[in-house]
Amino acid sequence: MSKDRDQTLQQRNSTQEYGSEINHFQNLLAQLEKKEYHPKRRQMTIAMGNQRRSANRHAYMMDIKTRLDEQSRLLQEQLVGKRTFGYKKEQQNELHRAIKRHLEISAKFCA
C-alpha cells in the first residue's frame, strides 16, 4: 500500500500538524506574557477602545441623521400646510427660524 492511500498515516500527519499549531500558539502566548511586549499590548487595548468608540459614534450619528430626516419631513409638511391654508405672521417667523436652524444643523452634520 502506498503512503498516499494509507489513511492511518494521513491521520497521524494531520494530528502532527494540529499539534504544531498548538505549540505555535502556546509559544506566541508565552511571548505575549513577557515584559517586552507590554507596550504593544497597551497599544492593542487602545486600538480596541478606539474601534468601540468609533462604532458607538457611528450608531450615534445614524440616530442624529434619522432625527434630522424626521425634522426635515415635518418642516416640509409645515411648508405645504403654509402654502395651502395660510399662516399668521408669527407662525411664519417660527417656521422660518426652524428651517434655518435645521439647515445649520444639517450642514454641520454633513460636513
Descriptive account of the structure:
With 111 residues, this protein is mainly α. It has one domain (9-110). It is built from 3 helices and no strands. Helix 2 runs antiparallel to helix 3 (89-110). The longest helix has 48 residues, at 38-85. The model is unreliable at 13-18 (pLDDT under 50).
Task: Provide a quick synopsis of the model.
With 111 residues, this protein is mostly helical. 87% of the residues lie in helices and 0% in strands.
Termini separation (Å)? Answer: 72 Å
Structural class, please?
A: mainly alpha
Gyration radius, to the nearest Å? 32 Å
Percent strand equals: under 5%
Report the mean per-residue pLDDT as an integer: 71
What's the domain count? Answer: 1
* Helical stretch tally: 3
Q: Give a short account of the largest sheet.
A: none
Overall shape: it is rod-shaped
Q: Could you name the ranges where pLDDT drops below 50 across 5 or more consecutive residues?
A: 13-18
Q: State the helical fraction.
A: over 70%
E-strand count: 0
Order of helices and strands: HHH
Oligomer: single chain
Features:
0% strand, single chain, 3 helices, rod-shaped, 111 residues, mainly alpha
Note the topology.
Layout: H1 7-33, H2 38-85, H3 89-110
